[in-house]
Amino acid sequence: MNNSIVNETINNQLNHRSIRRFKDKAVEPKIIKTLLDVANQTSSSVAMQGYSIIRITDSNLKKEISDICMQKHVSVAPEVWIFVVDAYRNAKISASKDVYTDYSNSMDRFFQGFSDALLSAQNVMVALESMGLGGVFLGSILNDSQKLIDLLELPEYTFPALGLEFGYPDEDPDVKPRMELELKVFENKYKIEEDYGKAIEKYDNIMKAYYENREDNFRLESFSSHVVNMLSRGIEPRVKILNTIRKQGFEFALEYIPENEIKRMYKSLPKEIDEEIFDVSRLGFKYSSSVKEMFEKYPFVKEYLLMINPRFNVLKTITASSDFEKVTLELLAEMGDMPVESLIYMIESRIDEE
Q1: Residue 291: what are its φ and ψ, rounded to 5°?
Q2: Which residues of 5-34 are buried (b: 16+ CB within 10 A; e: fewer)?
Q3: Distance set, CA 340 to CA 167, 232, 285, 328 (Å)
Q4: For FRET with 105, which of 9, 78, 179, 314 sits at 20 to 30 Å CA-CA?
Q5: Rounded distance between C-alpha atoms, residue 139 and residue 46, angstroms
Q6: What is the per-residue pLDDT for 84?
Q7: C-beta neighbour count of 160 within 10 angstroms
Q8: H helix intervals, the chain
Q9: HSE toward the beta carbon, residue 211, CA cutoff 13 A
């Protein structure tokens, strides 16, 4: 940070700390109003303002949210705000003018709202710290996004993006060191290190010293150890979070991508399964299973197939013909130019969502 320009705003940002313990003092209404005004004036993608804020004032609701976050301090924080992706409002505005589009719930709208929500949350953090308050972001609200959606009674086309708790600090933690800029700021193209273990060595030592000197030290580890620890575990609802987003009505518009076109770092491509080995799938599907019978049992699968692979548009015509009774999953996979095993797997995954 040497040779940097510093003013009061920048000084506050350079000294940002996560605050989780607060004084038993309410944040004044005038400050709340100011912070909401700051949030409201945040930059917004194509001026759609595709986000909303839910201020949690019910103590019982705070407790339930703290259980989702697995962080007790959330239940006693003076202020807890949830920033929400909100494509619902604009879809309703459009509908009020008798305009119904296919793009109100697209992933473009989702990411616009997600970006707006995060930008707004960061703006609020900068503003509250400038007034002597402190806070911490709560990505942990996504530990069980479906439960939070239910608790907040979020309608379709919405999704909780980020939480924020704040108040008057009752702790004074040290500023946590950050990784050297050379490791995460590049020019014109991405820089790949030859040896990441060696590249992170200096920062590892800095973090070890930081934890050793901390008064309320609760762990002693390097950054690389922290990375391994975090990447070695996963919370199931977070790992499967796309399912929850889809249940909220957002359309992924996925297309089939051949396995050899999907970038992977370490995992080897799955071996091809010989037809003689493949007998019956988990839900009872075979190569010879009738697509017509499948559609009769699971009518939503047809719409799903039309969404994931443009080649399946042929279904719009053949389903009305007498030849449709002859169409098997194997033949359908050929129409879509994809392995039948992959097709069956994707169909079963969609059925599991219902």
Answers
A1: -70, -35
A2: eeeeeeebeeeebebbbbeeeebeeebeee
A3: 56, 32, 11, 10
A4: 314
A5: 25
A6: 98
A7: 25
A8: 8-14, 29-40, 59-69, 73-76, 88-96, 107-130, 145-152, 196-199, 201-213, 223-231, 236-239, 241-247, 291-297, 300-308, 315-318, 329-335, 340-353
A9: 13
Structure tokens at 343: 């097709």
pLDDT at res. 276: 43
Give 290's strand partners. 328
User: Taking a C-beta distance cutoff of 8 angstroms, is the pair 86, 92 a contact?
Assistant: no
Rounded CA-CA distance 327/34 in Å is: 63
pLDDT for position 2? 64
pLDDT of residue 273: 43
3-state secondary structure 177-217: CCCCHHHCCCCCCCCCCCCHHHHCHHHHHHHHHHHHHCCCC
Q: Which helix (H) or strand (E) holds 81?
A: strand 79-86
Residue 218: what pLDDT? 52
CB 318 within 8 A of CB 265: no
Helix H or strand E encompassing 162: strand 158-167
The pLDDT assigned to 308 comes to 76
Classify residue 5 by its DSSP letter. -
DSSP 3-state assignment of 223?
A: helix
The pLDDT assigned to 275 comes to: 44
Residue 127: what pLDDT? 98
Low-confidence ranges of the chain (pLDDT < 50): 269, 271-277
Tokens 């929500």 locate to: 117
Residue-level length of the chain? 354
Sequence-separated (6 or more) residues with CB below 8 Å from residue 36? 53
Q: Give me the pLDDT at residue 274, please.
A: 45
Rounded CA-CA distance 114/160 in Å is 9
Which residue in 151, 135, 188 sits closest to 62, CA to CA? 151
Q: From CA 302, how far away is CA 287, in angstroms rounded?
A: 17
CA atoms of 48 and 194, how far apart (whole Å) = 43
